[in-house]
């Protein structure tokens, strides 16, 4: 895939509107991992050097098309200003009088950040008028939001129909690093999938059944499969309405010779906290108020053994509620083991990256660490992605 690159754009004296992926993990308004902000710096610095006016856009979290005070981009603007050593002007909207005013007084090399794009329901609807309005602020569009290319939203896809569109440096880096995986991959090919976004990740499994030799499941995602196998999941995070889908996927996998592995044991607790009582039990023992919050030690070791013999590994999604110490072990042990394996390792996802940071894992020990989670998985499925299609040369 060939992209139109930022280096091919004439930026001098122009206004660039840039879609970033600043959907960083937050804890009470504090940025837990700023990888995505740091990774956006080369593009911003280049735009400054080229003498462009810079308007940044991003979504954060899932605010459902309305204002959510906890999901304003102010902490991100603040962190970006620290990292880039320049003021970042932040407005509280994406459109309207205040935005118009801020843009009209913006100087060359200055940075303006719009509010969370998902405060507008038009964003996810890919509303044409909204996209056109955003486009009207600038002379060209740049996308560096690799983490959102699987979504056709107004700020990721719609806007590109009204402006010349180019890929930023991060976008280019991601596509270049991941593209070799679209050809023949070294076998055994293992997908390690965890985390909590069951609705978005479960679909991905369908394609990987045909590609991967094994799919290892952990995190909240695995609970739905454990439930679909007929086990009691107690009070665990589990999407019971996805049970049939999970059953279908397991049947399809069997027919295609791909093994879907679910944890045989779990670390359970009745409540979530840093000092709660836990037990590492067999899946058959889960009941009542118990929540499965990490894969057990036995499963962790089994997964590590499989990963050690793999040729290619894709990992997205923590194996448990790694934010709390009693439930970090599975994610931690596996992350550490992945630094030592002989196969190629591709890792992505906001929380997965946060976990690597929490456990002080040297990211240079992996083949590629992607800023995208769902986007990485869908890119590697070989799908045509709307946010990338608009950047094609
Ligand atoms: P990523 O951002 O890496 O794609 P997700 O957003 O899908 O990952 O999921 C990460 C979240 O899943 C974390 O907040 C983690 O605490 C949560 N999680 C993982 N396992 C469980 C579990 N068993 N029960 C509840 N939450 C879980
Ligand atoms: Mg996440």
List the helices and strands and how they pair.
Layout: E1 15-19, E2 26-27, E3 30-31, H1 35-38, H2 41-49, E4 53-57, H3 74-84, E5 88-90, H4 97-104, E6 111-113, H5 121-125, H6 128-135, E7 140-143, E8 165-167, H7 169-178, E9 189-193, H8 198-211, E10 214-217, H9 219-228, H10 243-256, E11 259-261, E12 265-269, E13 279-282, E14 291-295, H11 297-308, E15 312-316, H12 329-338, E16 344-348, H13 350-358, E17 368-370, H14 374-380, H15 386-389
Parallel strand pairs: 1-4, 1-7, 4-6, 5-6, 7-8, 9-10, 9-15, 10-11, 15-16, 16-17
Antiparallel strand pairs: 2-3, 12-13, 12-14
Helix pairs in contact: 8-10, 9-10, 11-12
The protein binds adenosine-5'-diphosphate and magnesium ion (MG).
What's the total count of β strands?
A: 17
The major beta sheet can be summarized as: 6 strands, parallel
Mean pLDDT: 96
Helix content: 25-40%
Report Rg: 22 Å
**Strand adjacency order, main sheet:** 5-6-4-1-7-8
- Name the assembly state: single chain
Q: Count of helices?
A: 15
- CATH homolog superfamily of the largest domain: Phosphoglycerate kinase, N-terminal domain
Termini separation comes to 8 Å
């Amino acid at each position: 895939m060939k992209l139109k690159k930022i280096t091919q754009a004439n930026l001098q004296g122009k206004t660039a509107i840039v879609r970033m992926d600043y959907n960083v993990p937050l804890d009470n308004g504090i940025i837990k991992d700023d990888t995505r902000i740091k990774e956006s710096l080369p593009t911003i610095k280049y735009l400054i050097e080229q003498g462009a006016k810079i308007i940044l856009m991003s979504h954060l979290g899932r605010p459902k098309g309305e204002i959510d005070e906890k999901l304003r981009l102010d902490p991100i603007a603040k962190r970006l200003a620290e990292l880039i050593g320049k003021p970042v002007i932040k407005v509280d909207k994406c459109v309207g009088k205040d935005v118009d005013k801020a843009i009209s007084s913006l100087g060359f090399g200055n940075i303006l950040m719009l509010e969370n794009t998902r405060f507008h329901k038009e964003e996810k609807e890919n509303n044409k008028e909204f996209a056109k309005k955003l486009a009207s602020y600038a002379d060209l569009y740049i996308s560096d939001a690799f983490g959102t290319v699987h979504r056709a939203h107004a700020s990721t896809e719609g806007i590109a129909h009204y402006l010349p569109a180019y890929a930023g440096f991060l976008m280019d880096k991601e596509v270049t690093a991941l593209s070799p995986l679209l050809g023949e991959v070294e076998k055994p090919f293992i997908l390690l999938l965890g985390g909590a976004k069951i609705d978005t990740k479960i679909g991905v499994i369908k394609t990987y059944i045909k590609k991967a030799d094994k799919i290892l499941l952990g995190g909240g995602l695995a609970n739905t499969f454990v439930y679909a196998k007929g086990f009691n999941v107690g009070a665990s995070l589990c999407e019971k309405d996805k049970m049939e889908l999970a059953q279908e996927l397991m049947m399809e996998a069997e027919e295609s010779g791909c093994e879907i592995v679910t944890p045989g044991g779990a670390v359970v607790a009745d409540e979530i906290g840093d000092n709660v009582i836990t037990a590492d039990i067999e899946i058959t023992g889960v009941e009542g108020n118990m929540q499965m919050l990490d894969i057990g030690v036995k499963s962790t070791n089994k997964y590590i053994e499989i990963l050690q013999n793999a040729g290619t590994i894709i990992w997205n999604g923590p194996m448990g509620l790694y934010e709390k110490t009693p439930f970090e072990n599975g994610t931690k042990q596996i992350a550490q083991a992945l630094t030592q394996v002989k196969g190629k390792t591709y890792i992505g996802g906001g929380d997965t990256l946060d976990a690597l940071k929490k456990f002080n894992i040297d990211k240079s020990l992996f083949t590629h660490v992607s800023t995208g989670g769902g986007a990485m998985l869908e890119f590697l499925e070989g799908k045509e992605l709307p946010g990338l299609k608009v950047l094609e040369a």
